[in-house]
Amino acid sequence: MSGCPPEYMPILIAFTRAMSNGDFRRTLASTHAWTPYCWVNGPLARQLGIDFSQGAISHRNNARIGRFINLAMLNLAGYYIKRNRMGSWGYLMPRALAEDEKSTLALGWLPYHMQMGYSVNDNTVTAASALNWGNNLAPATSSPGKIMELIAQDIIEKQQFAIGSGTPFVYRTVMISENVARDLAKKYRTKNALEDALVLNARQPVMARAYANYYANPGSAFDPAKYSVSRHAAVISRKEGGKVTPVPPHLEWIGMSEIQTVPVMKTGKTAILVNGDAARNKVMCVPGGGTATIKIELPANWNALVATRGYEPIEKFYLKTSLKPEKSPGKFNNYRKRPGRY
User: Is residue 322 part of a domain?
Assistant: First the structure.
């Protein structure tokens, strides 16, 4: 139990189920420092006090789940340091957090589990992994369009590998504090609308992408005598949807109106969560691996069981909304997919 009290068992069981998902497991044996983490949605998070606010992952309740993930990786999932957990500089402590669902719904946005097809008062845990943590953006503007452009620039700079040398489209979690989300919601009425805008704007110059992928390719090195970086740029452009676009706002200083770019995002690979310090203007982009969302199943006598531990009935933590889930829940519920769209 890793120090978790008994009422956490339904969350721990759900996370254990998530560990069987190949999309979640696949990256964890890499020599890069993929650190597993999770977030909890639904009234159970509020009932048990899983924190979504300032310092969330450091809260005692959240840290307990992080400790469980750490030991579950070893004792249940079979990951051993220096054998199949091979991060060159090791790993940060696994972590857990929640989403501020009340504030999310007030914006007209769906909490993450409702995007995955679950009802507002269903409980879910989403297993994910990350390659960085804590380097957040602090927008100094209330313009939703400018905030979106800043997030797009942040996404360009934060890919799975340090300078975007790996695969072109990666999973990300973007966490947004309440007041920044409120500004964004003035223009982007749903999380999906925000994601669509980011997909269109998060583009980098073809040569920047090609240079990184040529000289810092995590797969193998190229022979300059046989295959030049300019030739690689042509290949990258063809394979990754390169086209001539307006110069991204953060590159307007180069004095050109248009430039050949490639997309950095693909629709359906970004989770957007409203959480963090509600009194601060914060956005954090976390690139990582695939996810798995699992419904948390509670015993029929749940309220009676937790009453002995001093908890109020879970119904006291229910939320009401006229918003509907986006789709029917699937087995693991990875993000929405729009085939053929960048």
Answer: no
Considering just the CA atoms, what is the radius of gyration of the chain in Å? 21
Q: Are strands 258-263 and 243-246 parallel, antiparallel or unpaired?
A: antiparallel
Question: Is 323 a member of any domain?
Answer: no
| The CA-based dihedral angle spanning residues 258, 264, 267, 271, taken in that order and rounded to the nearest 10 degrees | -130
Domain identity same for 198 and 304: yes
Beta bridge partners of 176: 274, 283
Per-residue DSSP letter, 98: E
Q: What is the pLDDT of residue 210?
A: 92
- Is the residue at 332 inside a domain? no
What DSSP string runs through 230-250?
HHHHHHHHHHTT-EEEEPPGG
Q: Helices 229-239 and 206-215, interaxial angle, to 10°?
A: 120
Task: Give the integer Cα–Cα distance in Å for 71 and 2.
Answer: 7
- pTM, entire model: 0.91
The answer to whether the CB of 294 falls within 8 A of the CB of 123 is no
Query: Do 28 and 49 lie in a common domain?
Result: yes
CB 6 within 8 A of CB 270: no
Task: Work out the pLDDT band at 168, boundaries 50, 70, 90.
Answer: confident
pLDDT value at residue 338: 43
Quick check: helix, strand or coil at residue 153? helix
Range of the domain at 256: 206-262
Overall domain count for the chain: 2
Asked if 282 and 177 count as a contact pair (C-beta separation under 8 A), the reply is yes
Residues 258 and 268 reside in one and the same domain: no
To the nearest 10 degrees (0 to 180), the angle between helices 60-75 and 9-18 is 40
Same domain, yes or no, for 185 and 304? Answer: yes
CA distances from residue 210 to 26, 106, 260, 264 in whole angstroms, order as listed:
25, 43, 12, 13
Does residue 192 share a domain with residue 96?
A: yes
124 lies in the same domain as 215: no
